[in-house]
Amino acid sequence: MRIIYVSFIVILFLFAGNWWAGAFGLACKLPVYYTVGQFDERFGISETEARLALAEAEAVWEESLGRDDLFTYKEDAKLQVNFIYDERQRQAEETERARDSLETREEANTVLVELHRQLVAEYHSNEVSYEERRVAYENSLDAYNAEVERYNQEGGAPPDVYKDLEKKRVQLETERIELNDLGDKLNDLSERINEIGEKGNELIGEYNERVRQFNDTFVHDEEYTQGDYRSRQINVYTFTDHRDLVLVLAHELGHSLAISHVENPSSIMYYLMGGQTSPPALTDEDLAGFTSACEQGVVGRLLAIPRMLYNTLIN
Ligand SMILES: [Zn+2]
């Protein structure tokens, strides 16, 4: 019985020592050493770029906490960061391609909408000046006709008046031709506006259909499966770009400090990606998570020992 008791204490001590250093307390005082373990080149980045992303993920925590030694890269560290390429990343890449194609279409729509807006504005401004000139022309023509009519009734105009009237007639004719040209241009413009409007409606219809397909195919409210932290291993499964990778790494580094998920969607430690700021930054909830993971009282840590042993036994 005594032997069993002693063994239990020793085992407890070993477990607890490991647990204190690894999961909670010491990790907050001593640097967490990590290294890059498995690295799959199919992610399309070099290991150097991965290390750079890790350094940025470290900085997310270290800068806010004023601790530049919270995480340290060490070739032979126990904590490995693995880049595991599988179906998840293949799907993420497919999603990204579909998103890019949607964005290209959206840009084309925007260009067309802007062109339509400009042409409509041009049409309205030309229409106003056309109307003003047309009314002025009609008035001048009426005045001219009335004057000619009057001189005809008087048996003809004197030569100097006749000369003025002839000059006026030529001016009116020139104005009529110009007004006709302007009217034709307005009609052409109107046809072009209609064509672009139809094309725009078609494109927007197609775009909306593609957005619907995209949402059906790719948008799911999934948990944070882009990466995980298990038995002193950080595994990265998917990321779309550098910023995304930094976020995933910052999140998993948080778990390596024993920080749990928090409720604020813009927190690094929120269970879903998407609502975090750019560049990534800790929220008050993340900081509180760090504090509670690192500053649990001795009683809290002791109470956690049986729970940890129980978890170890059932796993
Ligand atoms: Zn998580």
TrEMBL record:
Keywords: Coiled coil, Hydrolase, Metal-binding, Protease, Zinc. Residues 134-199 form a coiled coil. InterPro entries: MetalloPept_cat_dom_sf (IPR024079), Pept_M10_metallopeptidase (IPR001818). Transmembrane segments: none annotated. One of its GO terms (biological process) is proteolysis. The keyword Hydrolase applies. GO terms for molecular function: metalloendopeptidase activity; zinc ion binding. The keyword Zinc applies. One of its GO terms (cellular component) is extracellular matrix. It comes from the Bacteria. Pfam families: Peptidase_M10. Residues 218-290 form the Peptidase M10 metallopeptidase domain. SUPFAM superfamilies: Metalloproteases ('zincins'), catalytic domain. This is Peptidase M10 metallopeptidase domain-containing protein. It comes from Candidatus Kaiserbacteria bacterium RIFCSPHIGHO2_01_FULL_46_22. The lineage of its organism: Bacteria, Candidatus Kaiseribacteriota.
